[in-house]
Amino acid sequence: MRVTANHLTFLRIILLPLPCFLLYGGPEAKLTALGIGSLLGLTDFLDGKLARRHGSTPLGAFLDPIADKIFIVALYTFLSHLGFLPLWVAGGVFIRELLVSSLRRKVPGALAVTWLAKMKTTIQMFVAALVVAIVTFPGHTFYFLLGAGVILVFGGILARLNLIKFLLVVFMALGLLLLSFLAIPQIVLILGSVALLVTWLSALDYLKIAFSSISLKDFLKVLPGALWPAVVLVFSSQAGSWWILIPLVVVLLFLREALLFFKKEKAQEIVPLVFFLLALLAMLTKELIPVYLIVSSVFLVFENISLFISARPTLFRRT
């Protein structure tokens, strides 16, 4: 059987929980999580090559970007829960990703993907792996940063970047070496801030086009949906054993947003606002948080099933 791009994308999604849960083990388990996570990240590059070689399908065009987003949001949710990354870094990344995705449904025509936007996911994964390595093995921080710098420069050479972009990559690599003089918490804070900064810088072009194309009213309609996962993430310290529902809710929110491209109804714009307001209410009473997470999970599971059924004829259309 020929391995297709879709097979690799499905593999990336199915195996994603494995490295996330391994992060809760000892150093050996975390090292295994790094290895598996790196291999899963590599499938993103390989399925792109296979898609270009054999041709893309509607299902593949849908799955590849959403698989990347699910990979990042799940990973950053777990890293924030473990204290490896500040909560505001993960929340800031989630808000940007959902905001741009929501605006894509509102802005007439397609928003062009910039070079920085293409690099964004790679940098997010790169920072996550580096943070796990440094926190788990602090005595080898210099070597991790040196290796990361070498990988950056080598990647820039393989990508055949122009002079300005390549010099930027070299500057980043040198900056990583300078970080070795700082304490681990400071290094983590800087790396997380860089990931968040790149994430939002990559959104500037999208936001500029969106603000010139849609009304303030339409923008305010998508804002609760963009804030929804960040608010849910705040429940991490108060959810207790129900915390495991938080990554599920966050992943389902991103899947929902992707499926909404195939079914644009006004009724579904009210859903994020309602659940966003309910989340604010749940913040006032700790006992309501498990109830909120259960209701959100159940609702999103059934809504995503409904949206998938509606999108199925388009996703499985033969090209």
TrEMBL record:
Pfam families tied to this protein: CDP-OH_P_transf (PF01066)
Xref: Gene3D superfamilies: 1.20.120.1760
InterPro entries referenced in this protein's UniProt entry, alphabetically: CDP-alcohol_PTase-I, CDP-OH_P_trans, CDP-OH_PTrfase_TM_dom, CDP_ALCOHOL_P_TRANSF_CS
Compartments, record wording: Membrane
GO biological process: glycerophospholipid biosynthetic process
One term under GO cellular component: membrane
Topological type in the membrane: Multi-pass membrane protein
Membrane-traversing stretches: 7-25, 70-95, 107-135, 141-159, 242-262, 269-285, 291-311
MF GO annotations: phosphotransferase activity, for other substituted phosphate groups
Alphabetical list of PROSITE patterns matching this protein: CDP_ALCOHOL_P_TRANSF (PS00379)
Keywords: Lipid biosynthesis, Lipid metabolism, Membrane, Phospholipid biosynthesis, Phospholipid metabolism, Transferase, Transmembrane, Transmembrane helix
Family: Belongs to the CDP-alcohol phosphatidyltransferase class-I family.
Name of protein: CDP-diacylglycerol--glycerol-3-phosphate 3-phosphatidyltransferase
Species whose genome carries this gene: Thermodesulfatator autotrophicus
Higher taxonomy: Bacteria, Pseudomonadati, Thermodesulfobacteriota, Thermodesulfobacteria, Thermodesulfobacteriales
